[in-house]
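Hi X.,

You mentioned you wanted examples for the new student's onboarding notes, showing what a folding record looks like when two proteins sit in one file. Here is a clean example. The first protein comes first, with its sequence line followed by its structure tokens.
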Amino acid sequence: MWRYLVRRLIAAIVVLVGVSFVVFLVLHLTPGDPAQVLLGPRATPDELVRLRQELGLDRPVLIQYARWASHVLRGDFGRSIMQHRAVLPEIIRRFSATLILTAGGVMLAFPLGTLGGIVAAARQGTLVDRLTTTAAMLGVSMPAFWVGLLLIITFSVHLGWLPGTGMYSPTGSGGLTDLLVHLILPATTLALVPLSIISRLTRSSMLDVIGEDYIRTARAKGLSDRAVIGKHAFRNILVAMATVFGLQAGFLLAGAVYVETVFSWPGIGFMMVNAILTRDFPLVQGGVLLVAATYVLINLGTDLLYAYVDPRIRYG
């Protein structure tokens, strides 16, 4: 197990280096000049040259990357070009907001999706099964940004039940209740697609297991449907569910970019969209590196979870 863990951590470092280099290269090859954005359209050529030298943008890309990477290894992610603040505290603050949104999506998507899939499989061919399958198909087909706008128009603009933007009310207390009220619409929007995917995959996995001989034997012994489904069938799809959990948790984290933009949620996705538009290279690089590291850790945790849910799995 420890050797496997070390190999995976080394592979994770290689992945993060590759991701950081590709992002760094793409940012510097795309059109746009941070110095021009910072100084405005009336800046003189001498002013632009001087600012590029101060920011180190006049050096070759490889040298810039090596310099940035060496600072990152020391825990220094640089300073934001536009905000004039240290990057690391800013992305950590924003990332905490994204984690709150992602946690809300996870708490909606996984329990409801799993329950929906189990109920649909247990009632195969009935009206409940058809309704659940149809709802899951619709959920997968609808874009998150469109669903978000629809929820804002319905529940915020027309009904006035829930706030449509932000994480806290400007005039509110800023407490837990205020946060939870603001979290309802964006978390629902973020959870819609993963919930639908989890429901469909859970149903498919349960139908495969329900047809096995040991399930028929359990029913022949007189066990109730709840005991057969909950104790015997569901336990044998946990490895498949762990895979789905890892994939969809990563999707929730990445998909938060769209939801944060629609709902003006002050997370890392909303921050990176604005940073890309203003050519704030250090902020984008730090944000992408943090998200990539989180995604890699989620995948590693998922692989380790396999051995926990299925004792037959061993890592050498």
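Then the second protein repeats the pattern, sequence line and then tokens:
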Amino acid sequence: MNGLVDTLLARLAAGEQGVLVRVHATQGSAPREAGTWMAVWDEELTGTIGGGQLEFQATQEARSWLAGGAAIEEVRRYPLGPSLGQCCGGVVFLAYQRIGPEHVAALRAELTAHLKPVALFGGGHVGAALARLLSTLPFSVRWIDSRDGVFPPQLPVQIETEHSEPVQDAVAQLATGSRVLIMSFSHAEDLDIVIACLKRQRERGDLPYIGLIGSKTKWATFRHRLEARGFTEAEMNHITCPIGVPGITGKEPEVIAVAVAGQLLQNLYQG
């Protein structure tokens, strides 16, 4: 499954022309935040700026430009009131950009620069389901495993794979602010990654979420081993285990992925 950025880039690489419509700024209540975008093609859309009459009008204006109408060079102001048929009450400012194949490289960098980093340790079934889901959310994923040949050959642009042996060595190189998900093929590797994350937290304190897949029993066993290595109660409280939004108890990889992604979003927006 490819994300929206992949869809956009693939269409441009195939030679299509479009108009990129971005939420430049907002005032008051608005359906989407600044930075949100959609690509308008002759007959289709990629992404959304919130739907409703705002999106309908922006789409019409973009397609007029595509059809040879006047270029839209200024940022346009859209009050979300009776005149637009929306009752949000705020104001949205939209910027328009004509795009084609020559913009692929620049847009690849630009549209992924704001994504929040996630380090996903483990290329198993749950890891694969999570990677696919996270590629559709505001995250960039560094997907790490100690085994060769576990990653799919084609992945969305938001996902970068890495072979690391020993796997815990990758922790030191994670981007500042990374949210870490630990679900390797063995408990021994999981423990090594947890230890590396706690050591990094002790030194830098820059990992806002560290989630470990497993049961309460697994975490109790890990706690005893971590205590024996000198980690304090406060340090171990940085680990979330079990992971996922409470109350979602299904064991299917896709269900676990949804629960974990929901918890990551809670951490992102509450943080």
